Amino acid sequence: THFGFRQVPEEQKEALVGDVFSSVASSYDRMNDAMSLGIHRLWKDSFVSSLLPRLPPSFHDPDNSASGPQKIFKCLDVAGGTGDIALRILDRARDKFACRDVEVEVVDLNEGMLNEGRKRVAKTMYYNTPQIRFTHGNAQSLPSHIANNSIDLYTIAFGIRNCTSLPAVLSEAHRVLKPGGKIGVLEFGKVTNPLFKEVYRQYSFSFIPILGKIIAGDADSYQYLIESIERFPSQPEFAKLMQEAGFKTGQLREGKGGAWTDHTGGIATVWTGVKA
Ligand code: SAM
User: Fold this and answer.
1) Deepest in the core among 97, 105, 108, 201, taking most CB within 10 A?
2) Which residues bind S-adenosyl-L-methionine (predicted)?
3) What is the pLDDT of residue 103?
4) pLDDT tens across 193-212, in order?
């Protein structure tokens, strides 16, 4: 691949990623809050509301279940970890559209993260409902029960940069989405403003490993996370990869009508596309 882990052989990379997330799973949510000063919550809120400005009309129809088989809006949240995105999708559908005909399957490579997610869901109204389930699996070759053309919305948040092959992840996403289905990728972008870029660099390289050591007792894992951010492609490079995988995107620029939207100066970026 062009991006990431040049020095780590492919077979070792997944094991390495596994170790990183096993060692941080239980402190993962606290670390996110500490590292981003809580801002990751706003990025995630905005990610989910931009992908679900509304639900397709049939899902607002109170007779959805009366006429023919009940329709379900199917979401797949890949590298979904502790369920942050999945729970936001379900909450938005319920709070905003009074709709519970939405199901999210969370797929993640790490059992530790999945178990944290399961524990978290046990405290919500979605516990023991078909609305959410957690599945062990790899973004690069999704579990075989997820059929071609079966998904309405595919999300991946802060997960794709850990994958060995970005084209493999995108082509799997494209395969399982229904024609017209949407993909949303939330990931660390590149900060373009030179001054802000330097501040961000200093912050990441000095402060984050220290926070990692204090909160998670593990500076190395967080050092790894920072390096993975640096290696990830730029906003236009990633948008091109999406197009190469067959997605229709906006134009190759930031903002309305563009292929991506930057948050906090490009620290985080949302790319969206549609399966043609
Ligand atoms: N989406 C969650 C969030 O935004 O809080 C979790 C993000 S966490 C930084 C990255 C997740 O990606 C971890 O849970 C890790 O296990 C998972 N992951 C890494 N490589 C993966 C792969 N190839 N397939 C599926 N999940 C993967």
Assistant:
1) 108
2) 82, 108, 138-139
3) 98
4) 999 999 999 988 888 888 88
32 is in an annotated binding site: no
Burial of 18 (0-12, 13-18, 19+ CB in 10 A): middle
Q: Are strands 247-248 and 268-275 parallel, antiparallel or unpaired?
A: antiparallel
3-state helix, strand, coil in the chain (%, to 5): 50, 20, 30
Q: Using a 6 Å cutoff on CB, does residue 84 contact ligand 1? A: yes
**Residues whose CB is less than 8 angstroms from the CB of residue 121 and which lie 6 or more positions away in sequence, other chains included:** 83, 87, 127, 132, 134
Residue found under tokens 């559209």: 97
Is the ipTM beyond the 0.90 threshold?
yes
193 is known to lie in a ligand binding site = no
Give the pLDDT of residue 245. Answer: 98
Q: How far is the CA of 58 from the centre of ligand 1 (A)?
A: 32
pTM for the model: 0.91
The CATH number of domain 10-61+69-275 is 2.40.30.10: no
pLDDT tens by residue, 89-100: 999 999 999 999
Question: Which residue CA neighbors atom 4 of ligand 1 most closely?
Answer: 157
187 CB within 6 A, ligand 1: no
108 marked as part of a ligand binding site? yes
User: Mean pLDDT, consecutive 10-residue segments, the chain of 276 residues?
Assistant: 49 73 76 89 97 82 60 96 96 95 97 94 97 98 98 97 96 98 97 95 88 84 87 98 98 97 97 96
* Ligand 1 centroid – CA 215 distance (Å): 20
Ligand 1, residues 16, 19, 158: which to mutate, most atoms within 8 A of Cβ?
A: 158
